[in-house]
Amino acid sequence: MNKPDTTEKCSIPGKDTGCECSKPLKQKRVLTQKFMFTMLYIAAAINCIALLVVVFFIVGNGWQAITWTFLTQPPMESMTKGGTLPCIIGTLCLSLGAAGVAFPIGVSSAIYLNEYARQGKTLRIIRLGINNLAGVPSVVFGLFGLAFFVIKLDMGVSILAGALTLGVMSLPVIIGTTEEALKTVPDSYREASLALGATKLQTIFRVVLPAALPGILTGGILGISRSAGETAPIMFTAAVFFSPNLPSSFFDEVMALPYHIYVLATAGTEIEATRPLQYGTALVLIALVLGMNMLTIIYRAKLRRNN
Amino acid sequence: MKNVISKKFADRFMHVSFFCIAATSIFVLIAISFFLFYEGLPVFKSVSVKDFIFGIYWYPTSDPPDFGIFPLIIGSVAVTALSAAMAVPLGVMTALYLAEIAGKRLREIVKPLVELLAALPSVVIGFFGMVVVAPFLQKTFDVATGLNMFNAALMLTFMSVPTICSISEDAIYSVPVSLKEASLALGATHWETICRVIIPASISGISTAVILGISRAMGETMVILMTAGGAAMIPGSIFDPVRPLPASIAAEMAEAPFRGDHYYALFATGAVLFIFTFMFNLLADYITHKYRQTGEGSL
Hints:
The structure holds two protein chains of two kinds. Chain A is mainly α. Chain A has two domains: 3-62; 68-306, MetI-like (MetI-like fold). Chain A has helices spanning 3-10, 23-62, 68-72, 85-116, 121-135, 138-152, 159-183, 187-195, 200-229, 232-235, 257-266, 275-306; strands at 75-76, 81-82. The interface between A and B is large, with 89 and 91 residues.
């Protein structure tokens, strides 16, 4: 009832510990803090647990499926037996192809943004474009790839069309990480190089890029891992249910790990019977993707410690 | 002298070339919208815009076909809203934990784990939802099917939490220490400081994070396709199956006859989805620039 009183007394510095009537209030404040901090702790724990549960579940159910045959043979008997070799090869082709498209463009874009561009409208618009590209739904990339690469440019359902679609999709990732890497190069490097009479171009290629190279490669790896895990963009542009042969050119259609999981889990003739295969394929995929991500995380942590 | 001029020219030339490459992203964005409309607009020869958007029947393969994407829009909005209700508190709270409470050691463990959560391929999360969460939901809540709106929203939550968390964390981190110190010096507890000083000071960054997280959830395809159940109807409860926009596109594109009405309708659906996420992204960009944190002065 005399709450205002209490708060007034408590706000007098040095007196709140001695003031008896403030004790319950203080206790309440401390308790609230304890409660809320526990909640925050739980929230953070939920995320970690979610990740671990998914990973353990896939690993626990999938490791039995991983055999030499599984990794080196094509699927057999209408995909109820055999391995995933064509899928692994397909995913590697697609994601490396995507990186081949996105890496040069992404790195050059980042060089422009960080080294050349001045604050202003143009820069703002380019950034807006990149941010929006990062937010385009993956299935819309698939539609775009179908309409533009597959139909308009007449590439057909092929590795090339899929790699281009995935490349466009991973562009923002590569631009973002490269820019971050360029920002870590101290300006004194650039100034020293320019003061020695080097042109801007020489400075960029001989000084800035070598210094930022590890960070830029990290971005490349992240781009590859992102492309390797995506399904929707390749559904209409590159991936097929089943193909008996390994791809022989860039114009062949391929099988891919993520699409293979989807097909086995939803459209196969014997969904229950192929469960082990599904877990196995999922395990290969997350090993590939999380492996690449772990690499970049460990590497970044090392960089931070060195700084 | 000549050498200097050609050097200058070369530099100028490189400047322009780098600019052109940097503009690729914008060209791609323009190309995406162009092709969505180019392949999508012909559908309006057979249905009116109003019937397409507000029609409540989506039977693209029956004769005559019905192209009403209203149930799909509602499905998308409902799933996204439900997942936002879970992902926003979870993401922001995790960000607060990482930025304010976690010790250095724990931070170095939790942060990479959240990043790895973001890296999980969506098809794997969808698969998990199908084979683990769906039977569990079906048993626990005694519902007709475990592949429903709640399952999809739950799986989406873990796809959007990393986005929300990492952007909010940056915003919280950039709140000037002096503000925090001033609040603590006035006798506020750490929690009171977080709630009354740090959150208000970083609210623009947190809102951006929330909007981008929602936008990501809305556009996510594989998770929705595998876990939402796929019934094109307006849901009555959170345990009803739904068919959001991306799921419909991904599931039907392979069967739609090339350049038939169904094909056009799916592209038009893609255009609607694109407009939704584009709006979200523009809004996020607007908030970031309008209420940019520039230090104590702007608060």
